[in-house]
Amino acid sequence: MTSATASEPVRREPGLAGQTVVLIGGSAGIGLETARRARAEGAEVILTGRNPDRLKQAALQVGAQGTATFDAGDTAALAGFFEDLPAPIDHVMVTAGGPTYGPLLEMDTAQVREALSDHVVLALEVARNAAGKMRPGGTLLFMGGTGGRRIGRGLGIASAATAALPPFAAALALELAPVRVNLIAAGFVDTPLSASLLGDRLEERRNQLRATLPIGRVVTPADVAALAIHIMINTALTGATYDIDGGQQFVSS
To answer: Average pLDDT of the chain?
Structure first.
């Protein structure tokens, strides 16, 4: 008896073939890596960002279907982008924005309001403008964090802002069904943004994480992108928060 096919590789159809993925903040880091992975899975991608030169270069790297340059925090610009976007689209991932840190008592009222609502308001505006153009089963995918779950003097308002995102995503998933809504909560990710924030302390931070994280290495944009693509492909996932921090929240790092 022979088995001529035993050694043949298993062929898998691309998981996102014929679909369109929009990356809000897709010119670098996690957004750009997710665009690469989406293209490898057969999707068309549309990238947005604030820096036109960096956005153009990113689009060339991944063969993007289109780009748009604007600040995601500009409500009118965000609405205009989705209004002009040809339908249908399938997935929208938002990596724009970041947490606010600092002593609570040094923040004025306006800063507190902004820090608490910034991510939720951006996510809500994306949902409001994108949902009508999305196919059933597509997903809105937002970014949160695991580091803010700890209460610490240096974290300030970030812990409260972080805590608001999982129930927000779950409630939005019920309202937007059958469009899905999910949240990725990352720890430290070795991105260009992290490099710009840490400067000459970047390698020290990398070494610290390599020594303390259970996975023995630093989480990269490729790790987060792989999770994002899985969430897009698996249509049973909605209303959930997915941690990806290499175990950072469980160790002193």
So the answer is: 90
